[in-house]
Design a protein that fits this description.
Blueprint lengths: L8 E5 L2 E5 L3 H10 L6 H8 L5 H14 L17 H16 L7
Antiparallel strand pairs: 1-2
Length: 106
């Protein structure tokens, strides 16, 4: 369902697959939610395995919204995420990595 070459990641929520992507607007929203001047700190937290559940949720929501979802973080409070919190953290980390991945030279 997702296209990794365009930075997309798929996450299963309540049995349905959702496409996530960190668009420029989603990244700006993420900075606002996390009250960060840049996303460098967030990337460093994920690289050091020092991220919080708040970081994961903010990334998931931003990615979902970048993929066209119109919900909000509150909609995910009772949602069943396929694979549980660990899968959500992996998807968030993958989403962040793909957003800043430099395309291979042709």
């Amino acid at each position: 369902m997702s296209n990794p070459w365009t930075g997309e990641v798929t996450l299963t929520i309540d049995g349905m697959q959702h496409r996530m992507k960190l668009t420029l607007g989603a990244l700006a929203e993420l900075e606002t939610v996390l009250e960060a001047d840049t996303l460098v700190e967030l990337v460093q937290r994920f690289e050091a395995d020092a991220f919080s559940s708040r970081d994961v949720l903010a990334l998931i929501v931003a990615g979902l919204r970048g993929g066209g979802w119109t919900g909000e973080a509150g909609n995910l409070i009772s949602a069943d995420i396929g694979g549980g919190p660990l899968a959500a953290a992996r998807a968030a980390a993958e989403l962040l990595a793909r957003a800043f991945q430099v395309p291979a030279a042709e």
